[in-house]
């Protein structure tokens, strides 16, 4: 959900951006501003930023903080459960929203106008239905003065972001569907505080180090999870997939281990003290860190048998961290020397030439991650702003040139991950005392920010390397109703028309009706027994080539209906079932899954 700030007399866009911990370019993109120098008092701006985690200073009052951040006293009081007279203590931590969680409709506004202005769009298509659904609007009609919640729309690309979450116990591995915005839990109570999901290059498997330092592999197509080894506490937890997506490399018991996930056999490579193992793209060589004869940490390459060892670096300092080979195998990056001071170097593998990355203002540069083009990488750089730390999401060329800040996070540091075509970077924000509560993505070219996940507890994330099919779904095909669609994996067949799971259901049928789709949808939604409640919302398709509607229940829907919603779509040509002709297909499903399932409906040829 987006937050809105009302422009005050004397405000400048740059001042508003700095006040709310957001880059000016991101603020301009969020509001599609054509002329940054033209601001009108009373204008409402979407603020793509996290909550301020403010520490109360001597002399602070709720009134002063409300003035400083441009929000109401009531907003601060409600967010922090403060009671009148709102007394504060020095050192007290307050969560201050970047604005109010609604947009006030202005004269001349329509849902289409609002959705376009605030980027409620997926794959370039304006999604007014998302605004309707969030606000439970039965129609698209709105009035001046209405307060509307404005959502962030899903990006709409095929693929997933795997992340570690503590939301429901855990920590465990979850998947965020970039196309639909749906989250799905993959593991239950086997994660650890150090768990980082690592995708195979074909995006069919995820490896991670879980509870008790056990290495697990998730086979996404089958849903199976296998435990393959156990590492020493406090050891090297680097995991790296082979280019053919079959073999996982890691270090254990003083050796490099190559575990084949197809044959379930392992090979040991004798490289004493090795760590940070990476595969070269030829699949025949490994890169790793080990000490030289003087006890100094260096990077080496060798064959899979451990022979033909060749030193790459000429390091004279301490250990190297976050070692990562570029996708083409030409460059390797790492951070050094430690945590309080963390600098990034890039080494050309063939020549040993080193490029130093200047980095951020505090020399605290973390989580460097290569883009798939091997020409650039992203990283998080810590910055002290006032009395609080924040992190800059930066991109830079392999040679240290063209270092740019793409976005800001209110976390001290954050892992970063690239989309498959290196158009976007996802990162964490919304940090409180322990964990990040939000996941964001920034469009590198357009500078537009999208909040992907909110109200969570996230430690790590990684975008799937390739645009993949949804391995969390199964396929339903009916020759009777002449349809095919995807539904959540694990749901059980009740009969030919109905499937159920622990978290939802679907049922299919066909109906006859007039050629007027609106009449058919109204008739289904407003039945005498009110199966969708007294005020259901009807959303018409935003695709002009498809005649369909969604029916979403109102809050007073009878509980025995199990949150039933409906999707009605007109057949290209009427079908006949047992001598009866039908011109509409109808899908019933729970409200949580109706949009996800209906978006995959296809008629059989």
TrEMBL record:
Domain of life: Bacteria
GO molecular-function term, one example from the UniProt record: lytic endotransglycosylase activity
Chain ranges of the LysM domain: 3-47, 52-96, 101-150
PROSITE patterns, A to Z: LYSM
InterPro entries assigned to the protein according to its UniProt record, in alphabetical order: 6-blade_b-propeller_TolB-like, LysM, LysM_dom_sf, WD40
Pfam hit, one: PD40
Name of the protein described by the UniProt record: LysM domain-containing protein
Organism of derivation: Sporosarcina ureilytica
